[in-house]
Amino acid sequence: MFTQRQRQRLFNGNTRSQDPLYSAQVRVTRQFGRGFWGALSATYYEGGRTTLNGAARDDRLAGTRVVATFALPVDRVNSIKLAVSHGRYARTGSDFTSVGVVWQHLWGGGL
Question: DSSP states of the chain as a string?
Answer without folding.
Answer: -TTSPEEEE-GGG-EEEE--EEEEEEEEEEEEETTEEEEEEEEEEEE--EEETTEE-S--EEEEEEEEEEEEE-SSSEEEEEEEEEEEETTTTEEEEEEEEEEEE--SS--
